[in-house]
Amino acid sequence: MRISSEIWIKAGIVLIILFSFYTYSENFFPLLNSDMAVNILMTPSFSLPHDIYFWGQDRSGNLIPLLSHYFYLMSGIKPVVIVSLVHYFILAAGFWALTRFVKTGYGRIVLALLWFLPPLHFREYLLILYGVQVSLVVIALNFLDRSFKTKLQWKYLLWLSASCLMFIIGVWVSDMVLVSILALLVTGVLYFLSARKDPLRSLSWRGAMVPSFCVLLWAVAGFLVLHYSKSVSTIVQTYDQGLLANTSSIFMNIRIVIESVVKVFLFSSESGIESVFAWGLLALMIFLFLPVNRKSGTLQKITENPWFYFFLAEALFTLASVLSSRWVAANGAGRRYFTTFFMSACICFVLWLENLPKNRLQLPLKSAFLILVITASLSGCFRFYYPEIKPSRIRVISALKYMGNIGIIAEYWNAYMTASPDPLHIKVTAHDKDYVRNPDLVNEVFGQPKIYLIKDGWLESFPDTIVQFGRTLKKQGRSFHLADAWLNRYTVVRK
User: Fold this and answer.
1) What angle do CA 25, 31, 35 make, to 5 degrees?
2) Which residues make Cβ contacts (< 8 Å) with residue 82, sequence separation at least 6?
3) Distance between CA atoms of residues 66 and 206, nearest Å
């Protein structure tokens, strides 16, 4: 009976992953944007150290293009397909690593829904680097936990080294992994202090010298590699003006978050389904913390379930870091910055639910939360299937592939995305007054036999002549609508 239920659980998780892949992956997502498309454009021509970080910045390590590049060279499959597969392979690996800490089928199904089908406000967890960041952290924790459970020292050091390596890769991908490392250190100190008082879990420093030296070596190696990576990347001055926001900016971040939450509760956000989820979750939390129910939710000791306390610390530290961040304030406290906090909080809550004492409240509580999670998942993807099925963005803009070798100049959000169906033959750049991520692409655009401008989001009408990147372009022929955009051909008349 247990084997049968495990099969159904695994089948359910596989179906959730497939549904997510055909909804949110780069090849199928109806709202593909230029930030997502840059991974696709980098895949065919990826090279180190030029592409060690996301084009035009000194942060966000390019793990997806790095892996995709070699699969592309071996297979020749379209870059957008390879990027989609590699991206979801990393997400699936992260979820697999998480199952080491989430023991029950119920917990795994709930987290599979949250991991692969997040609510509307946290959908960017899947779309850009945040899901990759969390996956790398959880994989590192999985390796770390395996090192604790082995008795052979060589295996212990092997798993410990693998964990350190994953943390280094994680920091390369996202500086926010440093917050996770801080949460791990705090959890470790609290665990050690608690274990010293428990005679059954007594700890000593004996035998810790070799592992400590191993960690120190990896820390030094990681620092050197990341320092080198920063030194050869594009320096962005706005990133280096300080980590912490001033008091007014912190209060602005908090105000924006509160206003966003209030809009959800007032059914004034983008999705009424998400508002239902918010009200249901609030009611569930109030019920859980009523005085009559407090005993049923007694927390385990840190020595019994340290990973619960890690994810709790990570959620709190991440929230504090985001709210106090100068960069987050400069970007309007976008919801994308809170996706990792949301995921850590969800994992923490599921670990707590798994350890609820068996009583008459356990099943209703778990059933209610599962219904709420399904509702939350619908809020993120419902509009892509009702009242009509939205086509993938790649499918819409694939019409550009039949124009041959072309160069395109456009507004940022219409630029890099348009090359994603065929980056080998379609060369693009944002216009010279916009965010040009890769100056090398400018020369490639002007090296194409035909050059087009896209006016959407940039020009009110196509001018007879326009100067771009020091070159005068003259309008040729009439404008036309293709791939959900207005285009017009131009030729270079003077350099």
Assistant:
1) 75
2) 43, 68, 71, 72, 75
3) 41
Are 428 and 435 a contacting pair, CB within 8 Å?
A: no
Asked if residues 1 and 7 have their Cβ atoms less than 8 Å apart, the reply is no
Question: Are 336 and 124 contacting, i.e. CB atoms less than 8 angstroms apart?
Answer: yes
**CB of 25 within 8 A of CB of 87?**
yes
Spatial contact of 455 and 475, defined as CB atoms under 8 Å apart: no
Per-residue pLDDT tens over the stretch 433-477: 998 989 999 999 999 999 999 999 999 999 999 999 999 999 999
What pLDDT, in 10s, does the model give residues 386-404? Answer: 889 999 999 999 999 989 9
For 426, residues 6+ apart whose C-beta sits below 8 A from its C-beta are 400, 401, 403, 405, 406, 408, 418, 419
Supply φ then ψ for residue 119, to 5 degrees: -60, 165
- Sequence-ordered list of residues with C-beta below 8 angstroms from that of 194, at least 6 positions apart, any chain: 301, 302, 303
Q: How far is CA 91 from CA 130, 134, 139, 484, in A?
A: 10, 9, 10, 31
For the question of whether the overall pTM of this predicted structure is more than 0.70, the answer is yes
Selection from 41, 123, 44, 135 nearest residue 87 by Cα: 135
Rounded-to-integer distance, Cα 483 and Cα 16, Å:
30
211 cis-preceded (ω within 30 degrees of 0): no
Tokens of 91: 């997400």
Count of beta carbons in the 10 Å neighbourhood of residue 370 = 15
